[in-house]
Write a structure and sequence with these properties.
By secondary structure, this protein is mainly α. Helix content is 81%, strand content 0%. It has 3 helices and no strands. Helix 1 runs antiparallel to helix 2. The termini are far apart.
């Protein structure tokens, strides 16, 4: 397959998001864990890069932007909770 780099980036992003979801369903990751959130954020970035460099699709871009922002929010909340738990220990 001779795809441009941005298509590979988008495919990698999709695979990362799907893998995160599979691992969540298989109870290998926690939905509020940093690995799950990071996989989702990086996956969304990969798809967004593909959309920005290749064929732009507004609805797909908005979906990935929301996915990224929600992942960042989850990482921030998790970080605050871990810090608070450490301070109580």
């Amino acid at each position: 397959m001779n795809l441009p780099w941005h298509e590979w980036t988008g495919l990698f992003g999709v695979l990362l998001v799907l893998l995160a979801y599979l691992l969540l369903q298989a109870h290998k990751l926690h939905g509020n864990g940093p690995i799950y959130q990071t996989m989702n954020a990086l996956g969304a970035i990969g798809v967004m890069v593909s959309l920005l460099v290749g064929s732009f699709n507004l609805s797909a871009f908005v979906m990935e932007l929301a996915w990224l922002l929600i992942s960042i929010y989850g990482m921030a909340v998790g970080l605050r909770r871990r810090r608070a738990a450490r301070e109580l220990s």
